[in-house]
Amino acid sequence: MGKFKNKLYRFMYGRYGTDTLSTVLLYVYFAFVLICTVVSIFVRSLWFSIFYYVVATALVVWMLSRMFSRNIAARKRENDKFCGFFKLRKNKFRDRKTHVYRKCPSCKAVLRLPKAKGKHFVVCPRCKNRFEVKG
Length: 135
Fold this sequence. Notes:
alpha+beta, two-stranded antiparallel ribbon, two-stranded antiparallel sheet
């Protein structure tokens, strides 16, 4: 068994491996297979079977291509973007009583601003654009 493990380590050297997005793709694959298996009991259709196999295969290929990719920087950017989306949603919910989140009209950066009534001006820290925010 040690020989196989050593070969696997050498094969994966320099490759991206697993991350949060790959793990979520695996869970989505299992959920999709489970749902389609239950639905296929009631729906006997060739088109449904083709759809099921194509989507399931696409999910597996996407997950494996991410894991075996040597373009580590691109995979890290994809994973950071995926995780950042959910982190922003979590922060918005956590700060819903004290802060508001607005996008800069110039550079599209998301700004966390304290809640205030009325109109006021904000300066974007990234692009230094000054814009009006309604509270």
